[in-house]
Automatic annotation (TrEMBL):
InterPro entries the record matches: Homeodomain-like_sf, WH-like_DNA-bd_sf
Species this protein is from: Halorientalis regularis
Chain spans, region Disordered: 65-93
The name this protein goes by in its record: DUF433 domain-containing protein
Length: 93
């Protein structure tokens, strides 16, 4: 079994993630709450202890303003770079 992350840190891309991993709090929240995956499934898929998943969910809900700010930053980056992507409907064989 994997080591349990002892804390949530902000070392990668200035976004909260599990210490020693690049897996963000936001990603784990999306997997469990938005995609309705079981926390154990998420932990197994990413070689985490299930406690890490619950720790991330707790952090997410304990810091709602911080997490909303991160979500706004992500959306802003998507919007800013949207012109660099190709819509699949625009691609011709």
């Amino acid at each position: 079994m994997s080591q349990v992350a002892k804390r949530i840190v902000r070392e990668v891309h200035d976004e909260p993630h599990l210490e020693g991993r690049r897996i963000t709090v936001q990603f784990l929240k999306e997997q469990v709450e938005d995609r309705n995956l079981d926390p154990r499934t998420v932990a197994d898929r990413h070689d985490l202890d299930v406690a890490d998943v619950y720790r991330a969910l707790t952090y997410y809900h304990d810091h709602p303003e911080e997490m909303r700010a991160i979500e706004r930053q992500r959306q802003s980056a998507v919007d800013e770079h949207r012109h660099l992507t190709t819509d699949p409907d625009d691609v011709r064989d």
